[in-house]
């Protein structure tokens, strides 16, 4: 069995599973945020009317909660949602609630690794489509809707069809100034925005061995944009070291068998990659930066679970050091712990000296919620994950997706720019 | 199940156009319905009727896990989406929450059904009859688990131990 099949067999109490089997898998961790949490509460209200018991969760210790989409509260309604979420966690005895304004908080997917909330081999479900991110730690990490999360909270398990696995063999180390984001945009561009639909996208090969855990998180995060059920990387010593550095001690690595089977194997020469962008209005609408259209940008946005981890900020700082931005530029570290490291290591000074506005961790403008959304006809380059019509604001705005280095270089010139042309 | 078709002749209708991100903070189902399809068709709310079907191309519902998307469509009166293919979270949310039926169709049905046509859909026989043209098409049968959850009326009413 491959790694996903082994995790699902263990979680469903079977000796083996195969693609297309339907299993009820026991869940190890479940996450919800300030959008999916209130959504789950609505499901609980419906269930009460149907006389289904919702007084107790199956295991509050396995549940954790983040405030990320609408913090700092955008308006009265989002403030009320935070109150509802807080009441919810209190009433049900959920202790792990990362609250805005109280020390560590941030985007849920970023907390999943920064706080080591998820362990290798876990079945981890979250009320958000980018839950796939955390597969980089070797977990089966899957996004679900409110009804399914409510079901998990009450029953501790959920049904899955065992997915087929597409294996992406990545060869060689990425060149300097080329990032995991470039690589995953390349892959999505080739297989299409439903090219991984219903499947696992597993990454391996020497390209993965050479890659940091944070870069692997970027790959797995964007598997959602190929329609995949989940993304995963087999855990290695780098994952062990990463989790240990976050204070995690008690975990076991699950790996696939030597004779693991994959529905399809794709090969990509990561050592030959160059900077890539996705043009409006789909993450699979890609081209290399050297062939990017010559548009006048209005804004550069470096934020989100995809593009504002510490490594992402460090990459942006390399480009922005000693330079000035020509267009409106916002950098929003994805968690307070990252913000703090950025301060301690001088990145914030580089950003502020360059003229960038540094904001608090939030999903904010990535999903068009608040904090810097786009006006009609505005054009943005962004380290986020999606560029559907209206994704970051007005339905007639446009978003180009890129790596943090390309977004930083473009901030300096006001045009879509290859960082290698500046450095 | 009879109803009229609203056809969007395109692929990749994503959750951001079905219900834009600014409404994620809204959890009132009736209010969500007033913003359904706002990112693609601002007239949708005024033209949709109880019992309507939406017909579209491949990868319907791609993107976010927001259950707001099937909720907004269902509370607008939409009973089923007919599409060449679906994105997985939208599909599963539609079924597990018992909001609407995600029906996979073939290219023949997609090409043969026009905006405004009246359909009669029989999921027990996997048949779609176009009453406006008198043509019939096969829908892709639901997988076993999906069929059972639909029959039960949603995931919470489905009893796996009875299988």
Description:
- The complex is a heterodimer of chains A (423) and B (163).
- By secondary structure, chain A is α/β, with parallel strands linked by helices.
- Chain A folds into two domains: 3-268, Aconitase, domain 3; 280-421, 2-Layer Sandwich (Aconitase, domain 3).
- Chain A is built from 14 helices and 18 strands.
- In chain A, the strands form five sheets. In chain A, strands 4-3-2-5-6 form a five-stranded parallel beta sheet.
- In chain A, a hairpin with a 7-residue loop joins strand 12 (276-278) and strand 13.
- In chain A, helix 6 (180-191) runs parallel beside helix 8 (213-222), helix 11 (310-320) packs across helix 13 and helix 11 packs parallel to helix 14.
- Chain B is built from seven helices and seven strands; from the N terminus they run βαααβαβαβαβββα.
- The two termini of chain B are 27 Å apart.
- Chain B has helices at 15-18, 29-34, 44-47, 68-74, 88-96, 107-112, 144-152; strands at residues 2-8, 53-56, 80-83, 101-104, 118-122, 127-130, 135-138.
- The relative contact order of chain B is 0.17.
- In chain B, 28% of the residues lie in helices and 20% in strands.
- In chain B, a hairpin with a 4-residue loop joins strand 6 (127-130) and strand 7 (135-138).
- The chains are: A alpha/beta (423), B alpha/beta (163).
- The A-B interface holds A 22, 24, 35-36, 38-39, 41-43, 47, 50, 52, 69-70, 74-75, 77-78, 81, 127-129, 131, 143-148, 151, 159, 161, 193-194, 197-198, 224, 227, 229, 282, 367-370, 373, 386, 388-391, 395 and B 12, 14, 16-17, 20-22, 24-27, 29, 39-40, 58-59, 62-68, 85, 87-89, 92-93, 96-97, 143-145, 154-156, 160.
Q: What is the strand arrangement across the widest sheet of chain A? A: 4-3-2-5-6
Q: What string gives the helices and strands of chain B in order?
A: EHHHEHEHEHEEEH
Biggest interchain interface, per-side counts: A-B, 51 and 38 residues
Count of spatially separate domains of chain B: 1
Q: N-to-C terminal Cα separation of chain A, in Å?
A: 46 Å
Computed structural class of chain B: alpha/beta
CATH architecture of chain B, by name, is Alpha-Beta Barrel
User: Number of helical runs of chain A?
Assistant: 14
- How much beta of chain A, percentage-wise? 15-25%
Helicity of chain B, as a percent range: 25-40%
Question: Would you give the CATH topology of chain B?
Answer: Aconitase, domain 4
* pLDDT < 50 stretches of chain B: none
- Please report the total strand number of chain B as a whole number: 7
CATH homology superfamily of chain B: Aconitase, domain 4
Radius of gyration of chain A: 21 Å
The level 1 CATH classification of chain B is Alpha Beta
Oligomer: heterodimer
Distance between the termini of chain B: 27 Å
| Biggest sheet record of chain A | 5 strands, parallel
Could you give me the name of the CATH homologous superfamily of the largest domain in chain A?
Answer: Aconitase, domain 3
